[in-house]
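Handout, section 3.2

Students often ask what a structure token actually looks like in practice. Rather than define it abstractly, here is a full record for Cytochrome P450. The first block is the sequence as you would receive it.
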Amino acid sequence: MEPFYMILSLVFLFIFLTFLFGTRRRKLNLPPSPGRPYPIIGHLHLLKLPLQRSFLSLSKSLGGASIFSLRLGTRLVYVVSSHSVAEECFTKNDVVFANRPEFLFAKHIGYNSSTMVSAAYGDSWRNLRRIGAIEIFSSIRVDSFLSIRKDEIRRLILCLSKNSLQSIVSETLRLYPVVPMLLPHMASKDCMVADYDVPRKTILLVNVWAIHRDPKMWEEPEKFKPERFEKEGEDKKLMSFGMGRRACPGLGLGQRLVTLALGLLVQCFEWERTGEEYVDMTEAAKGITMHKSTSLEAMCRARPIVDKILDASNSCP
């Protein structure tokens, strides 16, 4: 008889939860949703990897909705695929969405959610951010990481500051952001976004991959056109490092390292493909970062300048 009573209890619990969430939905003006959620799993059955493409497909199925709602299990989740709505979330409601959701892995792996990434918004997080900005990401610290200081490198850094190379880096981060979905945010109190109600503890997911390919924001968004960033203000549309109070504190460091690495690879080596076929840019459907499903194979040959750089670095005291 015990299994019977257990099943009966679960049925009553399901009815109670359905009534609770169903009543709440009728009272709130929620964004459109792709159908009624299933018991227990919600809309999880609709999601496939990679998530950014799955979310974009759901957005298109809802008439190109800039924001829509899902039930992932029992948690209410809003997915944003529009730059204007994301900007509203991280400017007008910046403080509200400065929190992170409470996940088990952050509790057990993230030192009880006490790291800069997973900590709740408050005094502790502000102290971590301040320490990180001073001790890790400050200009003095970044400059101290460089070991080669000869004239060739100085001229290289001056060359890297030109808009042409920076435009290539910006266009690469637009088409292939390292993190296609920003780290989840959580509403600390009720608010309004795009004229929709956002209940407290709603999880916010921002599909940067979709925003960076939005034809309303970018001309010919699927094409690689670095010259688009020669226009003033175009770089402010990028969300590769997030937006608002919880934006990545390593933005400056990341941009400088990518630009430096790309400049060195172009300056110091000659590159050739191993075959005549086009490079496969299909992204792998795993992990929170976006990387190629097929590794790039290329042949490189060092230019004469490499010997000069190595000799200069070896002569440093």
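Discussion prompt for tutorial groups: The mean pLDDT is 83. How would you have guessed this from the sequence alone?
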